[in-house]
């Protein structure tokens, strides 16, 4: 592939034997590190992800379009490992949100990328959706579909009680723009529109996760976290003041508690 020809292995800078030795060494050391410093569940997730990526994902790429879905699972596992390593459960709603975000995000991101490089992927012998989709109908449909699924996450996290209502409000704007870019690609399957979806996905994910953290209801109140918690609360209050219902003084326009009402309760 033209896009990856300068990487160490395809360029010949590193031999297959050297790459294999490095992969085995780092994989083993990584597993031992997880075992020594985390817990059995996190270790199992890490080793399982290596097994899913190295043989299964690699072998499906030239054989089946399902490789993209397998790769999306691989990409969703690392934040789950971070959550379990910190003592969380796989069933915690925050963990489900993290895994869902990373899994769903990869489809607009990667289908846009693979559409731009569909000729290159086909030349390399890879079975990607855009390579078998000359009209772009399936590619556009998948990008739009998974963008819609992503749009539901901020609302779901608010309904689950793990974030404030403002996350749902801000998530509407964030996901609205992603859907706008997806619609533009659906209207015109050009490489330029695919690139716009791809570039949007690059800043979309850190924004989504950053807002998720900012609006989380689970900030620790112990001494070590008190200072940062107070700062976050102060910023949240400033953000509420910018909401439409605050500016227009109409409490029924937004689910976020009205600041004056909140203040009177505190007094």
Automatic annotation (TrEMBL):
Transmembrane domains' residue ranges: 66-85, 97-116, 148-174, 194-214
Membrane topology: Multi-pass membrane protein
A Gene Ontology term for the protein's cellular component: membrane
GO biological processes: heme A biosynthetic process
Protein's UniProt keywords contain Plastid: no
Gene3D superfamilies, alphabetized: UbiA prenyltransferase
Primary residence: membrane
Name the record gives this protein: Heme O synthase
Organism expressing this protein natively: Triparma verrucosa
